[in-house]
């Protein structure tokens, strides 16, 4: 078998929950000052799941959707990994639950289990899948990577930075987005910025300020590493002009704008020939640069036009759905292809920064195919996402709070059936049928012919509730 060329992403399938809470309404409900969540954090909406969904159902939905939309055979998959930090079982991988889809088609020969480290697990799984295809272990089949999470925080300042969702990626040779070989830069360290030591709770312990500093430091280090590798490999000088688009893990969109400005600041430091009004920031001590608001504001303003072009289009899903932990970065990449035409994406270079607390971070990049016939179907497959975002069910903050309470009380309990009606989910969505006395879960999928709000044999009382959450359901 010959060395495979252009290994990377062939197709993306994004699953966004049907329910969300609006950040402007959440501000009022939480008693936060007007604009704190919408301007200060840069968010518009936060997707969330009721008690009828869990990490396995999200992953099942994304993988089944991918297989269906791409119309490929289940026997063509030889590697499947899940990146997640939503721990439902301390031993049994989410991947094993996904095997239900493959076993019924006679395929049990699939490598890979789960990758865990906060928001980084999806990237670790992606690197593993790409490594498999580029290795002597490869048997010629495709790999699938799933990045999925339910990001929920206890009431308080971190709660508005939650979200939920899943991205399934089909990985193979001759890809639409091929990963740039030899240009992966990684930074890992031991820090308690965000972690989940209480195994009876879905909520993390989080030191918000520390997590932001760790994020920005990891960005500095991986950017420098990426530049060094490009210089060594291709004798290439890298600055922001090298990337046509730049994507970041997005815990909230304001941090992404700060991150772009931070790279612009690093470029400024690297070029000692420039002297202008930003010169005053050249000699700020490194540790102070993370908290120096004047510096931050100056470089946000300096990089605004470039940010609007290269990064803002990647924030469609993160702005409206929030932090999906492992899935967020890949939802940014999907957003680029929703907001730009195939012609605008043709042959372009996309930079990617992945961050997971604790911590693990990498910077890497993709080159988009120059073959328009290959790119058009890739974009078409993502075009339904804007419609989906605009047709979700908006839940009032007080009802969202009640649903979070219910999740807290029930999430790890055996012997239960979910209370949220599954017929309110999008078509093709997997959901929990039952958790038995031994904690074993069973799942089923909503019909792909939409029966939303329709009970067999007639209409329900909730026919008028299509655009909002009806709390008595
Ligand atoms: N109008 C406009 N802006 C406002 C307003 C207002 N009325 N009120 C506050 N702001 C601004 C603040 O100035 C601040 O901006 P800045 O970051 O530029 O200084 C921003 O809104 C947030 O306000 P803070 O008071 O700093 O927010 P708080 O401390 O309450 O919480 C935080 C923010 C730390 C992000 C919290 O939500 C959190 O802990 N989230 C989880 C951790 C996280 O996401 N970390 C990021 C990396 S790790 C990861 O991905 C999980």
Describe the structure.
The protein has 473 residues and is α+β, with helices and mostly antiparallel strands. It has a single domain, classed as Peroxisomal Thiolase, Chain A, domain 1 (3-Layer(aba) Sandwich), CATH 3.40.47. Helices cover 36% and strands 20% of the residues. The chain has 15 helices and 19 strands. The protein has helices at 23-30, 36-40, 55-70, 94-103, 121-133, 208-234, 253-270, 286-289, 293-310, 316-321, 328-339, 342-345, 372-380, 384-390, 397-410; strands at 8-15, 19-22, 45-48, 77-83, 114-115, 142-151, 163-172, 177-179, 185-188, 194-195, 205-206, 245-248, 349-356, 360-368, 393-394, 430-435, 441-445, 454-455, 458-459. Strands 1, 4, 5, 6, 7, 8, 9, 12, 13 and 14 form a ten-stranded mixed β-sheet that branches. Strands 3-2-15 form a three-stranded mixed β-sheet. Helix 3 (55-70) runs parallel beside helix 4 (94-103), helix 6 (208-234) packs across helix 7 and helix 7 crosses helix 9. The protein is globular and about 70 Å long. The structure holds acetyl coenzyme *A.
């Amino acid at each position: 078998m010959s060395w495979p060329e252009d290994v990377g992403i062939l197709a993306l399938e994004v699953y966004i929950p049907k329910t969300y809470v609006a950040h402007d309404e959440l501000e009022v409900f939480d008693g936060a000052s007007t604009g704190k969540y919408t301007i200060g954090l840069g968010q518009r909406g936060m997707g969330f799941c009721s008690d009828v969904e869990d990490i396995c159902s999200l992953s099942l939905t994304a993988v089944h959707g991918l297989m269906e939309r791409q119309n490929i055979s289940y026997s063509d998959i030889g590697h499947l990994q899940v990146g997640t930090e939503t721990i439902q079982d301390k031993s049994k991988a989410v991947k094993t639950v996904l095997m239900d889809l493959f076993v019924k088609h006679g395929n049990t020969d699939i490598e890979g289990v789960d990758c865990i480290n906060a928001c980084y697990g999806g990237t670790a799984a992606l690197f593993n899948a790409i490594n498999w295809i580029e290795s002597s272990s490869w048997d010629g089949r495709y790999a699938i990577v799933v990045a999925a999470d339910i990001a929920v925080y206890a009431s308080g300042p971190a709660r508005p930075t939650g979200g939920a969702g899943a991205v399934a990626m089909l990985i193979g040779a001759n890809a639409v987005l091929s990963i740039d070989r030899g240009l992966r830069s990684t930074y890992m360290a031991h820090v308690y910025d965000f972690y989940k030591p209480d195994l009876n709770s879905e909520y993390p312990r989080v030191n918000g300020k520390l997590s932001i500093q760790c994020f920005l430091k990891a960005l500095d280090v991986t950017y420098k590493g990426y530049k060094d590798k490009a210089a060594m490999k291709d004798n290439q000088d890298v600055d922001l002009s090298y990337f046509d688009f730049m994507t970041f893990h997005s815990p909230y969109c304001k941090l992404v704008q700060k991150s772009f400005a931070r790279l612009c600041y690093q470029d400024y430091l690297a070029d000692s020939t420039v002297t202008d009004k930003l010169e005053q920031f050249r000699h700020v001590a490194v540790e102070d640069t993370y908290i120096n608001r004047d510096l931050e504001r100056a470089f946000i303003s300096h990089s605004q036009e470039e940010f609007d072009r290269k990064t803002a289009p990647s924030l469609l899903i993160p702005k409206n759905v929030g932090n999906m932990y492992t899935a967020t970065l890949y939802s940014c990449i999907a957003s680029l292809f929703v907001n730009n035409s195939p012609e605008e994406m043709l042959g372009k270079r996309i930079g990617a920064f992945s961050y997971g607390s604790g911590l693990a971070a990498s910077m890497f990049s993709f080159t988009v195919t120059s073959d328009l016939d290959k790119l058009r179907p890739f974009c078409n497959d993502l075009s339904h996402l804007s419609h989906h975002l605009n047709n979700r069910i908006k839940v009032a903050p007080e009802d969202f709070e009640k649903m979070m309470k219910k999740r807290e009380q029930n999430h790890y309990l055996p012997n239960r059936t979910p209370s949220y009606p599954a017929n309110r989910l999008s078509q093709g969505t997997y959901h929990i049928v039952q958790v038995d006395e031994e904690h074993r879960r069973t799942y089923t999928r909503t019909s792909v012919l939409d029966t939303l709000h329709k009970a067999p044999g007639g209409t329900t009382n909730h026919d008028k509730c299509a655009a909002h959450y009806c709390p008595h359901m």
